Sequence to fold (386 residues):
Amino acid sequence: MSTPFKAQTIVVVGGGMIGLSVALGLRLQGHRVYLIERSGRPEYTESPELRVSALAHHSRALLRELGVWQRLPQQRLGPYTGMQVWDHDSFGHIEFSAAEAGADDLGAIVENKVLEQTLWDVATEQGVQIIADDEVVEHTTNALQVTVKLRSNQQLQADYLIAADGNRSPTRERAKLPLSFWDYEQTGIVAVIKTEKPHDGIARQVFLPTGPIAWLPLNDTHLVSLVWSADEDKAQHLQALDDQTFINQLQAASDQCLGKLELASARAGFPLRMQYAQRWLDDRLILIGDAAHSIHPLAGQGANLGFGDVVDLLPVFASNANHRELRAWERKRKAAAVTMISAMEAFKRGFGTANPLAKLVRGIGFKAANSIQPLKRQLIKAALGE
Ligand SMILES: Cc1cc2nc3c(=O)[nH]c(=O)nc-3n(C[C@H](O)[C@H](O)[C@H](O)COP(=O)(O)OP(=O)(O)OC[C@H]3O[C@@H](n4cnc5c(N)ncnc54)[C@H](O)[C@@H]3O)c2cc1C
Fold:
């Protein structure tokens, strides 16, 4: 029997896409919600943003339910209907389409800042009390309540504190929640690229021995968002190149999949690290999103995992949240994160080698996956984040 609803006071730290989503979802249930973000309202310009996310169907369904998806500017969304993955050094190739999955698309590419601004605006309209340009400097929690002190000296008492403050989570560190991690020793270089051939709504990824390169289709059919993951030394070399030499190297690695390429933005690099907190609960503190787990971007699932945390956490707060239900939530979400982390690691180990036998085996593996229907269906499900 479910317990009757009781409105709670909840403080969310971090106004990224996961913090804003959970804050909005809780507010729509009738809770009193404060969101603390150390920056201001996210702003974006006319040009496509560098950071994008490939959102799976479950993330989009959540955003629709929150009344956010409908508000996103259509001209900034890049639905993708196909995926092509190949190995630069072997005959391995796999491709699949939304039609094979019985869907209209496989997901949509969204610019992070566009989504965050829309979430911010809807959350404000719905009564989330956003405290911007401030940060939590101290928190204490026990079995009954949480106290939070801000840099501005403001103090808040709440029933729960949700930390969605990203992979370096100061809240997690303050609570001394231990981390399991390993450094991929790779950097993800991102940029917007103009392509000669239209991308036709297909997300492409090629595996090189030094790491994968992904081209994610933006709304303009001649623009893609590049994520070039490369081992540290290779990444440093790439970062130091002038624009034209960088593009020449990208061109050479691309197997001409999109014709002649041009840089359409600056380049930026993000260190790639796999980590997850061993505990996501500490009395009334809850970790969520990248604060709880972060993974390699090669399957584009980091934000999708975070949205999964939100989807599963909201029902716990729809009735009167209790520790037993929160523990069950933690177990379920940890299993999802660890499954994804293991899959990413297997991929990275399988492809991060120039050994000729390994190349042959993965060539055969790719070919089999492309032609054996049940195996292919499994891969499509993984790509859909299911
Ligand atoms: C190169 C790259 C490509 C990626 N591509 C994809 C993809 O295609 N699909 C996908 O699903 N995922 C992708 N990801 C992962 C995705 O970007 C992250 O999982 C997602 O952004 C995490 O969101 P978050 O809200 O948990 O954290 P963040 O976006 O990191 O937000 C944390 C927020 O907390 C704030 N903050 C921090 N400390 C404090 C404090 N003390 N007080 C107040 N505020 C604070 C920060 O200012 C920030 O706004 C990619 C990641 C990388 C690096």
Summary: The first helix runs from residue 17 to 28. The mean pLDDT is 89. The pocket of flavin-adenine dinucleotide is lined by residues 13-19, 36-39, 53-54, 135-136, 164-166, 170, 188, 190, 227, 270, 289-290, 297, 300-304, 306 (CB under 6 Å).
